[in-house]
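Methods — Computational structure assignment.
A single polypeptide chain was analysed. Its primary sequence is given first, followed by the predicted tertiary structure written as structure tokens.
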Amino acid sequence: MFDKIILGALLFLSISVLLTLYRVIKGPSIHDRILALDSIGYTIIGIVALLSIYLDSHAYMETILLIGILAFLGTMALSRYMERGVVIERKRND
């Protein structure tokens, strides 16, 4: 019974990723697309966590941490680009 619940949750999260991918492609503004990419990252974290529970393995915990860090850094980089026009500012020594 518990396996069916996990598989159902995996199905719903997969559908959520597909719907959010539609928002990334069709989004009316760049801000919606950034938010959708962030949402996809965190939904994938949920999918990997449920997969880890389903397979009864702790091997995927590092993957969850890595995806979380990459999603956060990607959101920060895109937000900084939207705000300033560059991701990394270089200081000039004049």
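Note: The chain has a mean pLDDT of 88.
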